[in-house]
Amino acid sequence: MKFEQVIHKTHYWATPLCERLPSKLFLQRPLRFKAYCIGLPKTGTISMHIIFSHHYRSAHEAESRFLIKKILAFGQGKIDANQFTQYVKHRDRRLSLEMDSSHLNYFLLDVLVKEFNEAKFILTMRDCYSWLDSQINHRFAHASGYHRWTRRPHKALSQFIHQTGKVINYAKEEQVLADHGIYPLDSYFSWWTKRHTKIFTTVPADKLLVVKTREINQSILQIESFLGIEPHSLPTHIHGNKTDKKLHLLSQIDRDFVEAKANLHCNELMAKYFPEIKGYNRK
Of 28, 43, 80, nearest to 215 (Cα)? Predict the structure, then answer.
């Protein structure tokens, strides 16, 4: 095992202890900027971390297992808003990141916007069709590769997002999703819209930069300008977390049915941000 991996694992498993220590014990390191990438999974959050990791303090889904536990505890009413805020502030001081890239940051959004006035946010955004297709592929490509202790909190979060207080009903057209343990289209497409709507209504417009997933490499100068960092200090042509295994489950569902579900939930945002996409393009 490489030295860097040993350090990473040591830090990770020391997290529960660090969470209990007073925040004043963790030195406040000077930040050249403070940014959060808040895109959905499979929209380029890993690529964003890789881009910044060359010259800045960056992490992808830092302390995810422990963070998810706190997100669920707050969402389920086991801790109150003040306790959750204090946890987020404590974690932020401990990590002292300049780029914190994680889809989990969405669940911290209210706290991040309120508590960190200097923070800026980058939303990596992907159209609802290719996002869902990639999400399904990624789930199955990595399901057997995760350790149980890693998979369990992510599964619990997914259930919290898609299942809380709901009876899962599948239309006959999407039986293939039920057969593979995938949530119905309504669940995914409504979540795509809910997340983006929440972000657009919570983050002040001057502190939010929308970067389409397929345009990340072409947006480097724009990202540097947005964060006020030195031009050409970020590398280009980065792509992380590419999934080779593809199930093509979405393409097995009637195209009109998929488009009807997408239009029901995502039509307004798709028309605004992806007007060139007129429907589901089977691949």
Answer: 43
Each residue's pLDDT, cut to its tens digit, for the chain (283 residues) gives: 454 555 556 666 777 777 777 777 777 788 999 999 999 999 999 999 999 998 999 999 999 999 999 999 999 999 999 999 999 999 999 999 999 999 999 999 999 999 999 999 999 999 999 999 998 887 665 554 444 445 678 888 988 888 766 778 899 999 999 998 899 999 999 999 999 999 999 999 999 999 999 999 999 999 999 999 999 899 877 766 565 566 778 989 999 999 999 999 999 999 999 999 988 876 6
Query: Looking at this protein, which amino acid is placed at residue 144?
Result: S
H helices of 76-127, in order, are 81-95, 109-115
Q: Which two structure tokens, joined as six digits, stand for 214?
A: 């397929």
- The structural domains of the chain, ordered by start, are 3-273 (3.40.50.300)
- CA 281 to each of CA 129, 248, 276, 278: distance values in angstroms, whole numbers, following the listed order: 8, 12, 12, 9
Residue-by-residue DSSP string for 16-48: HHHHHS-GGGS-----S--EEE-PPTTSSHHHH
